[in-house]
Amino acid sequence: MDNDVDELFDQGLDHFNADLYNDAIEVFSDVLKMDPDHPDALYYRALAWFHKGDFGRAIADFSRAIEKNPRDADCFIGRGEAWQSKGNLKRALADFKAALDIEPDDPDYRQRVEDLTDKF
């Protein structure tokens, strides 16, 4: 079954990389039916929702991914970007700070925190 999940995930990733977000979401959803804790499927489905402009669903998937792996800075960045796109700068800043706490030497994360801090 692991091979089936891996093959299906790779198919979803191919769709995602081709900017076929609806197809990617469908395939990643199938992966999650087979393996509900698949962190990469959650992450990439969240990114696909984000690219489609469905920030609420992106936030939900990023949040689930963070529950599964609370040390994944990329998930905090993704959720922060979704919050920022919804206009919730306070939550965005909290997520950007969480990412920076995980990876304190990342200059991109530091810049995101500084940029949003300047808006308050």
Automatic annotation (TrEMBL):
Lineage: Bacteria, Pseudomonadati, Thermodesulfobacteriota, Desulfobacteria, Desulfobacterales
PROSITE patterns xrefs: TPR (PS50005)
TPR repeats: 5-38, 39-72, 73-106
Protein name: Tetratricopeptide repeat protein
SUPFAM superfamilies: TPR-like
Transmembrane segments: none
One annotated GO biological process: negative regulation of DNA-templated transcription
A Pfam family this chain is assigned to: TPR_8
Alphabetically ordered keywords of this record: TPR repeat
